[in-house]
Design a protein that fits this description.
By secondary structure, the protein is of the alpha+beta class. The chain folds into 3 domains: 79 residues; 131 residues, Sandwich (Jelly Rolls); 72 residues, Phage tail protein beta-alpha-beta fold (3-Layer(bab) Sandwich), CATH 3.55.50. Helices cover 37% and strands 32% of the residues. It has 7 helices and 20 strands. The strands form 4 sheets. Strands 3, 4, 5, 6, 7, 8, 9, 10, 11, 12, 13, 14 and 15 form a 13-stranded mixed sheet that branches. It has a 3-stranded mixed sheet with strand order 17-20-19. A hairpin with a 2-residue loop joins strand 19 and strand 20. Helix 1 packs across helix 3. The chain is globular, with a radius of gyration of 30 Å.
Length: 342
């Protein structure tokens, strides 16, 4: 292992707190072997465990203080709740003592209630703790879920799930774009991916790509079988390999068609693959995944189409250069903006 790679540096990388040089160093280390990636995941899990332990320790300290207070109250109550005999009959002390005793008992009840609520709070916290993983522009991450399913998260995307109960309740929430390789379990447990507007992808075991950008959602199935639930359109769509369902929330349209699925998930292999793809589509993808906006002087250029492959390695300027070359265009900068022209 590179001696400069530390748990703290890796955690800073996943929290987007690295310098550009540190980011390149960590990414190079992650790409150099699966063992490095698994080690990085362990370091992140250890960080979450430390956060959990701190939270639980705070609760236990609070409970301990409540118990001590309760013991003191009970001790005082024991001394105050005295009896004495008059004419052979047992009587309590005065009215004020009785009222005082009641107050003490109320304090005991309140303390015990607080302890119970603390225990309940620990249970709720553990069951509802959400793990969220985000990517920056031009960044991809490979995530191994608790059930051994694999998700590759594209740039400017996020993924959330309840880690403590995930193996019993396989549900995730996502924004942006991700490729899924779902592990099929022996008990045929479902895998649910929740999107915007209550859209849900239901999976048994398969590979597929989801793009959730602005008002447009695309689900492309590589292998297996999935069901897409669209409550707003009152539709349940079963998909087979090679199909894409496109949901336009703005226009309220749903379209299913046969496609070359590789065109939609080629990014996981470090390249964009095109087949009669317009410049408009490519520049939109560049903006969504890399956060870089490119303009044109002549809007008719946006309808130009290209087929082929563009590598994704390197920084955005290199990617823009590759796009320009593919369309036989030149790059020009004007007032801080980037333009493509003939």
């Amino acid at each position: 292992m590179n001696k400069d790679i530390s748990p703290e540096l890796v955690r800073n990388y996943f929290h987007d707190k690295c310098t550009a040089a540190e980011k390149r160093e960590v990414e190079s280390w992650l790409r150099s072997g699966e063992d490095n990636y698994q080690m990085a995941m362990r370091w992140l899990q250890e960080e979450e465990s430390e956060d959990d332990e701190k939270f639980l320790a705070d609760l236990l300290v609070a409970e301990d203080e409540v118990l001590k207070s309760t013991e003191e109250i009970l001790s005082n109550l024991k001394h105050q709740n005295k009896y004495y005999q008059v004419d052979g009959r047992v009587k309590k002390t005065g009215f004020d003592d009785v009222r005082s005793s009641r107050k003490l008992w109320y304090s005991v009840a309140a303390s015990l209630t607080l302890i119970l609520f603390s225990a309940w709070g620990v249970k709720i916290y553990i069951e509802n703790k959400v793990t969220t993983i985000q990517t920056a522009f031009a960044q991809t991450r490979r995530i191994v879920l608790p059930d051994s399913s694999v998700v590759i998260l594209n740039g400017n995307s996020s993924l959330s799930f309840k880690s403590s109960v995930f193996e019993k309740d396989r549900q995730i929430w996502m924004e942006g774009e991700a490729f899924f390789d779902i592990n099929h379990l022996s008990d045929h447990a479902k895998f649910l991916v929740h999107l915007s507007d209550n859209k849900t992808v239901e999976v048994l075991g398969t590979e597929f790509d989801i793009s959730e950008r602005k008002n447009l959602s695309k689900v492309v199935l590589k292998s297996g079988k999935i069901r897409l639930d669209i409550p707003d359109e009152n539709e349940n769509i079963d998909m087979v390999p090679g199909e894409m369902v496109e949901i336009d929330s703005f226009n309220g349209s749903v379209k299913k068609q046969l496609v070359n699925s590789e065109l939609y998930y080629s990014w996981i292999h470090g390249k964009w693959k095109f087949d009669s793809t317009t410049l408009r589509e490519i520049l939109a993808r560049l903006s969504e995944t890399h956060g870089t906006n490119v303009n044109v002087y002549d809007t008719s250029l946006l309808d130009r189409k290209v087929s082929g492959t563009i590598p994704l390695h390197g920084e955005s300027p290199e990617l823009i250069k590759n796009i320009a070359n593919a369309f036989d265009l030149k790059i020009e900068e004007q007032k801080g903006k980037i333009y493509l022209k003939k």
